[in-house]
Every structure is written in C-alpha cells, then in structure tokens.
Specification:
The complex is a heterotrimer of chains A (about 300), B (about 300) and C (about 280). With about 300 residues, chain A is α/β, with parallel strands linked by helices. Chain A has a single domain (about 5-295), classed as P-loop containing nucleotide triphosphate hydrolases (Rossmann fold), CATH 3.40.50.300. Chain A has helices spanning about 45-55, 80-85, 100, 110-120, 125-140, 145-150, 155-170, 185-205, 215-220, 240-245, 250-255, 275-295, and strands at about 5-15, 20-30, 35-40, 60-70, 75, 90-95, 175-180, 205-210, 225-230, 230-240. The radius of gyration of chain A is 20 Å and the shape is globular. By secondary structure, chain C is of the alpha/beta class. Helix content of chain C is about 35%, strand content about 25%. Chain C is globular and about 60 Å long. The chains are: A alpha/beta (about 300), B mainly alpha (about 300), C alpha/beta (about 280). Chains in contact: A-B, A-C, B-C. The interface of A and C includes residues 198, 199, 259 and 271 of A.
C-alpha cells in the first residue's frame, strides 16, 4: 500500500528563542492510501498543530525546528510556497471544525463551491456550477439548485457542514484532514455526518487523517489511530487493538475516564494527576535534551 | 492538561506591570502630553513670565526671541496689544483643562446614567430614551451652543453647558449598547440567580465591566471638549474680554497672519498636541484595561 | 413515600416571533407541557439535542424565566407566578451552575468576590475577614487552592473555572441545583474529575439536582432518573438503568444508537442511521 502522508520526527515550536514553546516534539505518523487514521488527543496535545503543519497553515510565529512531512513522496516543508498552495484544496483538503466561520458569509454557496472547482480544475463557470450541484446531491442535500443560490446563513449548521464536506472532496484529493468536524454537532447529526464522510471517502478513494478528542468517534470511523500528548506520539496501531488492549498507561487512563452509556457510573475512573505530571516532565526533559544538542 | 494540576497555582506576574506593558508607546506619549498640559494649567501663575492681560503697546507684535527683532523678555513674542504670547498660551491651558475636565465628566455622568437605564430596562423606557437620543443628536451642535450662549450669556458656563448638552448622547449610546451586551452574558444571569436586585446587578456586576469603555471615551471626550471650546472662543461666545484662550488667540492672529504668523500658529500647535495627547492616552488606556475582559 | 422537592405540571414557555406588518406575532413554543418530579436528594438528567428546549427548561426551573403556562412547585410552594420580590427568599435554596464558566464568572471581579457575593446579598457575611475565610472554604470544597481568592477568571484553566462555578452555586447551601451542560467542552480527563467531584458533593450534601446535558454517557454517571426531550416535549422518562437498557420511544432509541461507544463496530456506519437496536452491552445495573 502506498504511503500518502509520512510525518517523521516533526518538531514545531511557537515563538522565538527564549519564549519558544514546543508544540510538537518529534511526532511521527503515516497514512496509507485510502486509510482512515484517527489522531486523538486532548486540548493542547498538538493535534490541530499537526494538521495545520501538513496543510501549511501554521501560525506566522511557528517554526518547524526539525523533521519532515512527505506527501506523496514530496517534502512539504521544503516545497516553495506557491507549489504548496496549489496542493491545498486539490490534493490535500480540509474539513474544518466550525462550519459557522469557514464559509464566506457574503458569497453564495454555489459561488464558493464553483470558485474552488474553477481554480483547481479549470472548469468553466457553467460546468463548475453543474458539478457543484452534483456534489450537493452526493452529500444528501435536497434541492441542490436552490441551495446553490443561498447564502451560508440561510442554511442550517448541519447543511453547512455538508457543504464543507462536499467542498473537501470536490477535487478528488488523496488526503483529507478532518479537524474535529463533528465536535459541535448533535449526536444524531454526528452519526449521519460520519456516515457521509465514509461514503464519500469510499467513492473518491481518499485517505483521511481524522483529528478528534472523542474515542468513540475514532472507534467507529478510523481503522488506525495515533494517541498524542504534549506533542508526542504515545501509542499508535490498529484501532481495534489499541482500544481493546491499550499499551500506554495514558491510553488506558483516557479509556477509563471516558463515560460510557452502557456501563454503570462506578466504572468511571479519573486520570491520575501523577500520570499527567509524569508525561509533562518527560516532555520537558526532551526539550532540555534538544536544547543542549542544539547549542 | 493544566486542569489536572489541582493544586498547582502558578502565581501570575504582577498585573499592573503586564497591563502597563500592553499600553505601549501610546500610553506613555499620551500620558506625557496630557501630563504636561495639566501641569502647565495648574502651575500657570508660577511659570508664566508675564501677566497674560498686561498690555505693552511699545512691544507690540514682537516675534519669538530667537528670530531677528525678538526680545528675550518675551520668549514667544507678543501680540498686537503687546501681551506676552507665552503667558497667554499658558493661561489658555487653564481654560482648556477646566473645560475638558468638567464638561467631559458631566457629559459622561449624564450619558452613563441614561445609557444604563435604557440598556437595562428595555421596553418602552429604552424606546423613549433611544428616540430622545436620536432627536437630540439631530440638533446642530454649534447652533445649540449659540442658542445657549444667547440664553445664559457668553462665558465658561455656556461653553461647558454646550458641550454637556450635545455630547452626553455619545456616552449614552455606547453605554446602552454595552449594557445590553453585558446583560446577555451568563454572569448577569448568575447574579439574578443569587438574588441580586436589578440595581445591584448594574452597580456591582455591569459597571465594573464598563470601566475600560468609559475611561477611553472620557479621554477622547476631553480632547473633543477642548476643540469645542476653541471653536466657541474663536467665534467669541466663550470667556469674556481679555481672558486668554487658544481660540481667541487664533481669532486675533488670523487678522495679522502675514505680519505675525506665530500668534496664530502657536495656539494651533498647543491644541493639536493636547488633543493628540488625550486620544493617545485613551487608546493606551483601552489597551491596558481591555485584555482582562477579552480573555 | 417519596418526597418530591421539585415538581412541574404542564410547564410551558413560548415567546412571540417577529410580527410582520399585517401578521400578528405567532408564539414559538420552546417548552411544551412538561411534567417532571424530582425526589429530594436525587438527580434527574435532562437530555436533548439542540432545539430540544432543555436550556430553557433549566432556566425556568430556577425562575430566570417566567412560565407562559403551567406550574412549578418547589417544596410544595408554587413559584411559577411569583414576582422578583417574592422569589428572593427562595432563591437562596435554588441555584444554578452555568455551561460556560468563561462567561458565567464576571471577568472583572476576583474569584473571592464572585464566590462570596451570594453571601453578601443575603447578609450572611460578618466582615472582610469572614469573607476571605468563606471564600477559601468554598474553594477548598471544590479542590482549588486558597490563594485563588485573588485570581481573576482569565488566570484559571477551563476546568478550574468550572470548579469555581460549582463553588459559587454551593455558597448559599441550596437544596436544589440545576447544572446546565457543565462538562460540555471540557477534556475527557477534566470532565471525569468534575463529574466525580459533583457526584461526591451531591451525595455528601444531599443535594437535589437537575443535570442538563446532550451527552447520554455523561448522564449515566450522575443521574438516578432521566427525561428525554425532543422539540420541547418530554418523550420518555424513567430510571436511568431502565432507559438505557430498554428505551421505548423511537427517539430515545435513535439517540442511544447514535452514541459512538469506544468499541469498534463494523456496520455502525452503514445507512440508514435510524437503527432501532439500543445498546445492550455490559451490565444493566
């Protein structure tokens, strides 16, 4: 199986010199063609940063201190900016977290989708709109022609998320980064959206890096998973294995701290603060080692 | 992650220091300019080299001391009646500061009170107050000032009254809007749940949050007050007779601008620096006080 | 014989929608004829998705809103129609913990002030020293260090703020607390701590609670009974164990089936999503 995305030993820091905070500390992961890999972590673990690093959307004061990101064999970090921008939206796509703020409020839905298609696929205006309508049908939006004419605030949150999903798959990307796409959704809507994402993935043959904090979502849609904490990969493997027989104490603790609708209240175990303290201490030790090596 | 550090309390660095750092150059320059103005106004009798209304027709229209023909006794020259320009500038600062402080504070007091009432009561009270503000703002301010002067008689009271009567609406509008926003927040609801009366909520919960806004507006309003006073004294409605005002000096200086340009130029410089000072101070204060709220 | 602390009878709330030029304002019903009964010392969960009216219902129960029709009885007293002055003495016994601690703690007031304000309102403070002591005591109850008294909300983490919110709700030693989505938006680890803290406090202090959440899994941890809301109506209610083991209403089943448990389940993603099979794994107790 070909490897679409290969991240090796990625170190990312925010800020300069003395004030720099390390957000990724030697993270490595791989996503193969058509694979759905879950990237799991709590807030501050660095999972959004990882996704942004792949997309080339790191904040201005972030530096890739070490490591590499290879997409379809090409080094993304070394690539010139213009070349990278051509990849974004076309070969690598993003399903963002917040449908509210990801669509341009002053442009009609149809215009936004067709702009994307025209830019990346060179379609004519008419063809682009036609394709846009087809995409809306794919994401189960009824009356696609009518929706194309609407503004984002005139459609529901769930529909907006579907539009964003449609846009992500529009150019048949080989990799889609889904950044917590269902976190803000109702649980019944979440299920529909996950089903949709899976269906589109199969149809377009894309690989997905699914960023989330929800272990349940990972279990349902991701065949493989990577657990991130303090910018480090603590565990990874087939989801079935990691969830059934977690090896790292952090993974075990997270599972035990996740409330389950099918288990009684007594089953809930808080994450021991000592465990977290220990992990942060390790991370700081790593920082220290790196700083010494650099100087 | 830091959440689990139940007992870790990282002491915050001194809030004042952080706040002042945020203010930046604007705060310091603004404070300096305003500080100089206020000091000059306070210490006028001691620092002015001459009596501002003392005429010396023998030394009329002398240029500033460093120009050919100037007299070191009159550092910035004299006007057509032989009065010391520097002394008149210094004493004018008194008028400016008095007007700025009193007028701005009164306008603020009235505006805030009405704004709070309109914002918190809503309903017909709000409707009435808003319409009142709208109608009031439609009056041409200068016309209103002239009418007031005709009724009360020319003088400082008239100037202050004119400013207050026009500018309270500025405060009322902003405070009303901000009050309505604040009342939507959960802490206003929480205050109701713990039994606070409406007045109590406004006084104890909302008012502290209005401080940054009001302080900034107040500083800006002082700058505006100075300008209004200048206009009115230029027109001759402000303080009577010989009393030194920047506006009056500009009016006199206008007649002889080719023969003695400094008489008009110097007051203008003073006005500009004072108004800029107040604006910068307001801006700087906003930066110091605001971030607490925005977090 | 169960002693019901809070009971609602046909409780409804509606607000007028914008009237057009020639159209009279129509009423938008958010809560429709809700009947609830919360026994003293127990926890009732209110579950619903967006638009279910659960937040509005929560606000009705603490009388932040006045019902349009129907009644609320608190400890036998009808409170639905009371005005502010009449409510005031009762407010000390009915408290609320809000969802977003960022906005429910006044950003310009120190924690000590915020926590002891309820005591101040009801005249239960005996001076400045007493105020500091009480604030420190409240912080201690929720596991926060005493020197947080001087902190501002923005100097705390999300979990710490939520604990402060809980501490404030406990200040007046109320009988009844409504917790509105208090762990939504928190990390799994933080969430577990807060839930267990609340569970412990509820048992120790004998609190009667209504716990609002969109997350059924969280409800299971804390609640004895649960009421499922859809479009402003209660579609099913009953003991937690029974509802989770055998939900009756189709919406309840849909809701339960939609919860992604952290178990790999091929076929979960197959459509149609309205699977009628509720979860039956694990022990029902």
């Amino acid at each position: 199986m070909t490897t679409i995305l290969a991240i090796r030993d990625l170190h990312v820091a925010i800020g300069h010199h003395a004030d720099a905070t390390n957000v990724l500390r030697g993270a490595s992961l791989e996503v193969g063609a058509g694979e759905v890999r879950g990237l799991v972590g709590e807030s501050g673990a660095g999972k959004s940063m990882l996704g942004r690093a792949v997309l080339g959307l790191l904040p201005a004061n972030a530096i890739v201190a070490a490591g590499s990101i290879h997409f379809e064999g090409r080094d993304l970090v070394a690539m010139p900016e213009s070349e990278r921008r051509n990849l974004l939206g076309r070969r690598i796509a993003l399903i963002p977290q917040d449908p509210m703020t990801s669509l341009n409020p002053v442009k009609r839905v149809g215009a936004q989708i067709s702009n994307l298609l025209r830019r990346h696929l060179g379609l004519s205006k008419r063809d682009a709109l036609g394709r846009a309508a087809e995409l809306l049908v794919e994401v189960a939006i009824r009356e696609p022609r009518r929706v194309l004419e609407l503004y984002p605030h005139e459609i529901s949150g769930g529909m907006r998320q579907r539009v964003l999903i449609a846009m992500a798959f529009a150019c048949d990307p080989s990799l889609v980064i889904a950044d917590e796409p269902t976190t803000a959704l109702d649980v019944t809507v979440q299920r529909q959206v996950l089903q949709l994402v899976e269906r589109l993935r199969q149809r377009h043959g894309a690989a997905i890096l699914f960023v989330t904090h929800d272990l349940g979502v990972v279990a349902k849609i991701c065949r493989t998973m990577t657990v991130l904490h303090a910018g480090r990969v603590l565990e990874e493997g087939e989801t079935v294995d990691v969830l059934a027989k977690p090896r790292h104490p952090y993974t075990r603790a997270l599972l035990a701290a996740t409330p389950r609708a099918d288990r009684p209240a007594e089953a809930l175990r808080p994450v021991p603060p000592a465990l977290i303290e220990g992990l942060w201490a390790e991370a700081r030790r790593l920082d220290g080692q790196l700083a010494m090596a650099a100087s | 992650m830091a959440d689990l550090a139940l007992n870790r309390s990282v002491a915050p660095p001194s809030r004042w220091v952080a706040g002042l750092k945020r203010g930046g150059a604007r705060l310091w320059i603004g404070a300096a300019l305003v500080g100089v103005l206020v000091l000059v106004a306070l210490l006028a009798p001691w620092i002015a080299p001459h009596d501002p209304i003392e005429q010396d027709l023998m030394s009329a229209q002398l240029p500033p001391a460093w120009i050919n023909g100037g007299d070191p006794a009159y550092l910035l020259g004299t006007d057509s009646l032989g009065r010391c320009v520097l002394s008149r500038l210094i004493y004018s600062a008194r008028t400016a500061v008095v007007v700025a402080l009193i007028a701005a504070s009164l306008a603020a007091a009235i505006g805030i009170a009405l704004g709070l009432v309109a914002g918190s009561f809503g309903g017909w009270v709000d409707q009435l107050t808003s319409r009142l503000i709208d109608v009031w703002m439609a009056f041409p301010p200068v016309l209103l000032s002239i009418v007031l002067a005709a009724v009360i008689g020319a003088g400082l009271t008239s100037v202050i009254a004119a400013i207050v009567v026009v500018d309270w609406t500025r405060f009322a509008r902003v405070v009303r809007a901000e009050t309505m926003v604040q009342l939507q927040r959960d802490y206003a609801a929480a205050a109701r749940v713990i039994g606070l009366s409406r007045g109590g909520i406004l006084r104890l919960e909302i008012l502290p949050n209005l401080v940054p806004l009001v302080v900034t507006l107040l500083a800006v309003e002082m700058g505006i007050a100075i300008l209004v006073e200048v206009i009115l004294s230029f027109v001759g409605i402000s303080v009577a007779g010989d009393t030194a005002t920047w506006g009056g000096m500009i009016a006199e200086g206008r007649q002889i601008v080719y023969q003695a340009p400094w008489i008009m130029a110097l007051p203008i410089l003073c006005i500009i620096s004072s108004v800029i000072g107040f604006n910068l101070l307001g801006d700087g204060l906003r930066l110091v006080l605001d971030p607490v709220q925005r977090r | 014989m169960t002693d019901i602390l809070l009971r609602t009878g046909s409780l409804s709330f509606a607000y007028p929608e914008r009237a057009g030029l020639f159209r009279r304002a129509s009423m938008h019903e958010v809560v429709k004829r809700v009947d609830l009964a919360v026994p003293r010392g127990s926890v009732l969960g209110l579950v619903g998705e967006s638009g279910s009216g659960k937040t509005t219902l929560g606000r009705l129960l603490v009388r932040l809103l006045k019902p349009t029709s129907g009644g609320i009885q608190f400890d036998g007293v009808e409170i639905g129609g009371l005005d502010e002055a009449e409510m005031r003495p009762l407010r000390a016994r009915i408290q609320m913990i809000f969802q977003d601690p960022q906005s429910s703690l006044n950003p310009r007031l120190r924690l000590g002030t915020t926590l002891t304000r309820p005591l101040q309102v009801y005249g239960r403070l005996k001076g400045r020293r007493d105020r500091r002591d009480r604030a420190a005591a409240l912080l201690d109850v929720v596991g926060l260090p005493a020197d947080f008294v001087d902190r501002y909300p923005h100097e705390l983490s999300g979990g710490q703020r939520q604990r402060a919110g809980i501490a404030r709700a406990l200040a007046l030693e109320p009988d009844f607390i409504v917790a509105d989505e208090i762990v939504s938006g928190l990390d799994v680890s933080t969430q577990a701590h807060i839930l267990l803290l609340l569970k412990d406090l509820q048992k120790r202090l004998g609190l009667t609670m209504v716990f609002i959440s969109h997350d059924l899994s969280v409800i299971r941890v804390l609640c004895n009974d649960v009421a499922i809301l859809q479009h402003g109506e209660v579609v099913e209610t009953g003991p937690v164990a029974r509802i989770f083991a055998s939900p009756q209403h189709p919406y309840s089943r849909e809701l339960l089936a939609a919860i992604p448990l952290p178990d790999v389940e091929p076929g979960w993603l197959d459509e149609p999503s309205a699977s009628a099979i509720p979860h039956q794994q694990g022990s029902a107790a």
